[in-house]
Each structure stands twice: as C-alpha cells, then as structure tokens.
Amino acid sequence: xxxxxxxxxxxxxxxxxxxxxxxxxxLRTGRASTALVEHLPVxxxxxxxxxxxxxxxxxxxxxxxxxxxxxRGTVDSIIKAIQTSDLGINPxxxxxxxxxxxxxxxxxxxxxxxxxxxxxxxxxxxxxxxxRRHAIDELRKSLREHEISEDEEHGAQASVEKLATxxxxxxxxxxxxxxxELLAV
Length: 185
Prior knowledge:
Layout: H1 2-26, E1 41-44, E2 47-50, E3 55-61, E4 64-69, H2 75-84, E5 92-93, E6 98-101, H3 107-144, H4 150-183
Antiparallel strand pairs: 1-2, 3-4, 4-6, 5-6
C-alpha cells in the first residue's frame, strides 16, 4: 500500500519537474531557440492552436527564428499572436516566411526575466509540495482505515519528505543554471 502511494508521489513530482523544464525553455536568453515560440497560442479560424501546429519553426542563426506557415492565410494570425505575447520581439514577414530577430537582452530585461524565473521556480516548488501533501494525506487515510501500521506510515512519510527535498533541490539547480544563462552577457 505504501509503495503505491510513494510511486504516485514520485510520479507527481517528476511531472512537476518536467513541466518546469518545459517552462524554462520558453524563457528567452540571448540565443534564438524555437522552444521560445513553439507553444505560442495562435487564434485562427475561431480556434486556438499552438504555433508548432501551424508552421515549421527553425533557428538558422544565433539571433534569428524563422517561421514558415503551412497555410499563407495564417501569417497575419501568427504575427498578431507574436505581437500580443510578452516576448518583446517584433516580427517581420515577406508574406511567406516570418522572421523573428532576437535582439540582445538589456540589463533591465535580464532582471525582469530573472524575476519571472523566480516566480516560475516557486510555482514548481508548490507543485512538488502539493504532491508531498497529497501523499501524506493518503498515508494518514490508510492509517485511519487500518490498512497500514503507524510505523509504516511514519517510514513512508520520511520517504515522501526525502523525495520532495530531492525534487526541490533539482528544481533549484535547474533554476540556478537558467539564471546564470540569463545573466551571462
């Protein structure tokens, strides 16, 4: 019984780590990366779709992202989505290909991105803590229903705490690396 609860807790915490890692990819550094825009929501024909479902994305140069829509009718929708996003990038288009020049980051923009990073890191920590809380609640419920002993519950709680601590340490390490990357000139 405790093994199932521990596996579920680890799975929840792993998913929080994966979500955080995907989230970090969307934070802009000085280099062009298609991860910056691939999940950008684009409204077209009354539906909202991710940009990577409407176009081919590429980063042919260190400071440029190109977007080649599969349907030329989506060009305006894509440009509008990029302009209304918080990326701070001004797209240019020749009607077939959209170019996103990635300007070098200013010191102020770097500080703003670091603040965003810290808030996203805290959100990820909260997700890990929620996984820990859920597992501990399940353990207490099992104890009340006499499915496990007090010793088993206590040992399993200690294991859940170790899991949460390890996952939060990984989050902090990933966040620190991304912060160094953002602040590198």
